[in-house]
Amino acid sequence: MASLITPPQILATIADPLYALAPAEFTAARNAAAREVKDSADLELAARVQELKKPSPAAWAVNLLARQRAEQLEQLADLGATMREAQEDLDREQLAELTRQRRALVNALAREASALAKDARHNLTVTVIEEVAKTLQAALNDPAAAAAVRSGRLVRGLEATGIEPVDLTDAVAAPEASMVSAPRPAAERKAVRDLAAVRAAKEAEKRADEADLEVRGVERRISDVETRRGRLESRLAELEEQVGALEDELRESDRDLRSLGRERDRAARRSADLRAEADKLRD
Fold first, then answer.
1. What is the pTM of this model?
2. Residue 137 CB contacts under 8 Å (≥ 6 apart), including other chains
């Protein structure tokens, strides 16, 4: 049976692992792949492999998303399709909400690309992150650009003009193997959105359960503090009672001291009188 794999697919198969490499590793790996193909006597394919271009920093970061965050890129493409539907229907309220979602999703994916690059020991500059965001915006606006982004073989960043289709010239390695898929039917897009809503609901329910656990934990701590406060109040009442009794004893001691002081003064006067009388009798 003849092989069903076409030359573009063979080139894409060779290119895929190359565009998964770190930028510094790309050129040497591409040259080695070209030599290997050349050794197999397929000179035309070897030449095409040798022509594969090293991805720009922004394209490399977007390729990371394509490999490690494919589901989020699907959400981006689905959101773009939904926005185009809303534009056709002139639904301004829905468009305003979708625009907010678009901004949030593009920014979140750009941050995620930066984080993935950092995990791969490459820090993206602010300029590169902005180019990543523009590329994601282009993917949201144009189905062909979305297919290019999802291919994982992006060579350069993309930019949408808002009017013309996104220019994909020399933007994807082995582009023939990344033909733009036909737009999804409305029913399929709705199913995707419904699935996303179910997932979001489950995630929200999970967070709610975690919040409930936190509430119960705080309530237990409140109960413990209230119990401790009750014990302290009881102890304070006991101490106040003891203080009252001690104050009574102190007042009684003060009375005794005053009484004994007067008694001492009387005894001293009587002693003085008796000594004076004794002195007179001696004389």
1. 0.59
2. 102, 106, 160
